[in-house]
Specification:
Length: about 220
DNA sequence: GTTCTAGAAC
DNA sequence: GTTCTAGAAC
């Protein structure tokens, strides 16, 4: 009897939940509806970085030419973005020999940034071949990949396949050639990379699901 | 890029 | 029944 009453209560509370969606969602719908009436911007979120790099809350350090911020959704214990202030490019694909000095400055600043962390972590420094956010940004990320923000296969593969282009490779290429045409993957290859099986970056383990990969990565991190 | 959630996969 | 992924979001 008591359990029946409890089940009934649960049922009715679930119904209540259905009839009253979370306020967060309502606000979102209202905001979208407003933006549609006046300025329909399908990809408004792409400019998120441009906002973040100008918000002192996020800035780790800043110079005339570069700003370094913490990634808002870090995919590892340490995850920074090194962003050139005065560049119009959205992707590393368009970098040329003319950008070599800038890239070397970014490399120097990145190495300085992680200098004191090298006893705690290893780092990857590079660009996503196909970034989602506008404004060229260099990822400086620790290789533990232990983070609650790491959730999807795309997250993992974007850093752990040839979708991730190491800065030192880019610099090497531009020292011998004018552009990155013969280093850069095609759009088709990029799609394949992002859908690859989930291979651990520290051993031969292949995970079947993201949750199992995350559990596995934690075992590497705790054995350090 | 994230959030949300339907329905696939287990 | 629960876990997990993947596609929509105008």
């Amino acid at each position: 009897m008591a359990s029946n009453a409890f089940q009934h209560l649960m049922k009715s509370s679930r119904k209540l939940a259905e009839n009253n969606p979370p306020s967060k969602k309502r606000i979102k719908i209202a905001a979208v509806a407003t933006s549609n009436e006046r300025t329909p911007q399908k990809h408004f979120w792409k400019s998120g970085l441009t906002q973040a790099m100008n918000d002192s809350e996020n800035i780790v350090e800043s110079s005339d030419s570069l700003v370094i911020i913490k990634d808002k959704y870090p995919k590892a214990k340490f995850h920074y973005l090194v962003i050139p202030k005065d560049i119009q490019l959205n992707s590393a694909r368009e970098l040329t020999k003319l950008h070599l000095n800038l890239l070397k400055e970014m490399q120097q600043k990145s190495e300085l940034l992680i200098k004191d962390l090298l006893s705690k972590a290893e780092f990857k420094i590079g660009f996503h071949a196909k970034p989602s956010m506008d404004h060229l940004h260099l990822h400086v990320i620790s290789t533990d990949f232990v983070s609650s923000c790491l959730k999807t296969k795309k997250h993992w593969n974007s850093f752990n396949t040839k979708h991730f282009l190491s800065l030192s490779d880019l610099i090497k290429k531009l020292e011998e050639k004018d552009n990155l045409d013969d280093l850069y993957p095609s759009d088709i290859d990029i799609e394949l990379y992002l859908k690859k099986a989930l291979n651990c970056n520290q051993c031969q383990f292949e995970a079947k699901t993201m949750p199992s990969l995350k559990t596995h990565l934690e075992t590497h991190a705790s054995s350090l």
